[in-house]
Design brief:
By secondary structure, the protein is of the alpha/beta class. It folds into two domains: about 70 residues, GMP Synthetase, Chain A, domain 3; about 70 residues, K homology (KH) domain (GMP Synthetase, Chain A, domain 3, 2-Layer Sandwich), CATH 3.30.300. Helices cover about 35% and strands about 30% of the residues. A three-stranded mixed β-sheet has the order 1-2-3, sandwiched between helices. A three-stranded mixed β-sheet has the order 4-5-6. A hairpin with a 5-residue loop joins strand 1 and strand 2. Helix 1 packs antiparallel against helix 3.
């Protein structure tokens, strides 16, 4: 887990349950509220652990979903910001990622996606772009991620 990120007791317990169920170390964990009032737990793991975390036929994620009664997402981390953004926005086809520094010092990531994939990149009720902003801000010195389409 990244230094500097503080977890409350609930999140620490969710991490413990994930680690013991999958045998995989959690790098980060965020609980997001859904528009329907439910919660989604996003566990961030390293790329080499994805198959182990999923388990055969996704059994580990199914067990976690039943045990916690919450939707579960797995997110792969990369120290390479561009690769990490592609992981966050998948399956949207990312065409270009450009970092900009605004006059006030804010660092913005402009992501161009295929026009047909804008909905995927933003997600239902903004779920995907919200997730991207949360995780990018937690792991990189970036203030926001903005989606564009190129024609």
């Amino acid at each position: 887990m990244k230094k500097g990120i503080k977890f409350d007791n609930e999140t620490m317990e969710l991490i413990r349950i994930f680690n013991s169920t999958t045998g995989v170390e959690t790098l980060d964990c965020v609980i997001l509220s859904e528009p329907d009032g439910s919660e989604r737990i996003i566990y961030m793991i390293s790329r080499q652990d994805i198959q182990k975390a999923l388990g055969k036929n996704g059994i580990n994620v199914k067990k976690l979903k039943e045990k916690l009664n919450k939707n579960i997402d797995l997110l792969v981390f990369s120290e390479d910001l561009q690769r990490f953004i592609k992981y966050l926005l998948y399956p949207a086809r990312v065409l270009k990622i450009e970092e900009q520094t605004k006059p006030d010092g804010r660092r913005i990531i402009m992501v161009d996606v295929h026009p047909e994939d804008k909905g995927l990149a933003i997600g239902k009720n903004g779920r995907t772009i919200n997730k991207a902003n949360i995780f990018v801000k937690r792991h990189f010195p970036i203030d926001s991620v903005i989606i564009n389409t190129k024609t």
